[in-house]
Design a protein that fits this description.
binds calcium ion, four-stranded antiparallel sheet, 2 helices
């Protein structure tokens, strides 16, 4: 009797583990082809990162640039923006700009958080971000620059990346 009970218990546990695994595996990661897990030796965890390389030329030098979104490793993953333009080849990091859907939106919708297109029709793409920081707050570094909205336009101007109100 004890053995049967143990077997039933084992099967129950096994079944629930298997169910969890199955559930986990069947949730598709959006834009999975751009997603990688990078180990962070400070946080001691893998951070989900979206790497968009060679898709846009933000600094208009004829060579494609890189845009990445680095996950914070939390249960509800928030991502911050990093941009590397080919003209200076250095990463500009925005560690206080958080979004939770760093996906390739094709157009502006109510839920678009990230979109790259030529918003001002000057022939060069800009980056749109609708940041979703805690309590809707605007990062201090942006407030000092006169930014009054969570909707940001990030563009390359006079040799550097600038952040403006959208
Ligand atoms: Ca470029
Ligand atoms: Ca433009």
């Amino acid at each position: 009797m004890k053995i049967i009970f143990s077997i039933i218990l084992f099967l129950t546990i096994y079944h629930s583990i298997k169910a969890q695994n199955t559930t986990y595996e069947t949730i598709p990661l959006p834009e999975a082809e751009y997603a990688v897990y990078l180990y962070d030796s400070n946080l001691l965890t893998d951070r989900l990162t979206y790497q968009y390389a060679n898709k846009w030329d933000i600094d208009n030098d004829g060579t494609m640039d890189s845009i990445s979104f680095i996950g914070n490793g939390g249960a509800h993953v928030y991502f911050h923006l990093e941009v590397k333009t080919s003209s200076d080849n250095i990463w500009t990091r925005f560690p206080t700009f958080y979004i939770d859907m760093p996906y390739l939106f094709k157009e502006m919708t109510d839920i678009t958080q990230f979109l790259v297109m030529d918003f001002d029709n000057d022939g060069v793409d800009e980056i749109y971000l609708d940041i979703d920081n805690p309590f809707g707050s605007i990062p201090e570094i942006l407030q000092k620059e006169g930014i009054t909205s969570n909707q940001l336009l990030i563009e390359f101007e006079d040799g550097k990346i600038r952040v403006k109100n959208f």
